[in-house]
Design goal:
- The protein has two domains: 5-70, no CATH class; 78-115, no CATH class.
- It contains five helices and two strands.
- The chain has helices at 5-17, 35-47, 71-80, 83-95, 101-115; strands spanning 51-55, 64-69.
- Strands 1-2 form a two-stranded antiparallel sheet.
- The chain is globular.
- The mean pLDDT is 93.
């Protein structure tokens, strides 16, 4: 399964908007993506330290549920929240032939620094 950058951003916005307690699962429904694709991306975001999540898989079903954004997740979402920053981030990532979640975050931070006239390094 491929990493869907736009799905990740949409999922983070859904998790942030949730009024659920961090002890409960956040229902993520981003059409037309299947529950399995959503679960896969929840798992990836969990592994990246962007969200807290729970593995609810069984022998017959692969299922991960998001619970909340981590502090790092809030920072990442704040960096990519603006749609023009997000588009520039994705464009830069595509020049590299793709990007991991952590690399997307680095690109977004560099884009924000450039927009603010701050040194990148």
């Amino acid at each position: 399964m491929r990493l869907d950058q736009d799905l990740i951003r949409e999922m983070l916005l859904v998790i942030e908007a949730s009024d659920k307690s961090p002890q409960h699962w956040v229902q993520i429904d981003v059409p037309p993506h299947s529950a399995e694709v959503i679960s896969y991306h929840v798992h990836l975001l969990y592994e990246a330290g962007i969200i807290d999540a729970q593995d609810a898989s069984s022998l017959s079903e692969y299922r991960w549920h998001a619970k909340r954004l981590t502090y790092q997740g809030h920072e990442f979402l704040d960096a990519i929240r603006d749609i023009s920053v997000w588009r520039a981030t994705k464009a830069a990532a595509s020049k590299a032939g793709g990007a991991s979640i952590s690399f997307l975050w680095e690109i977004a931070k560099a884009e924000l620094r450039t927009r603010l006239g701050l040194p990148i390094g």
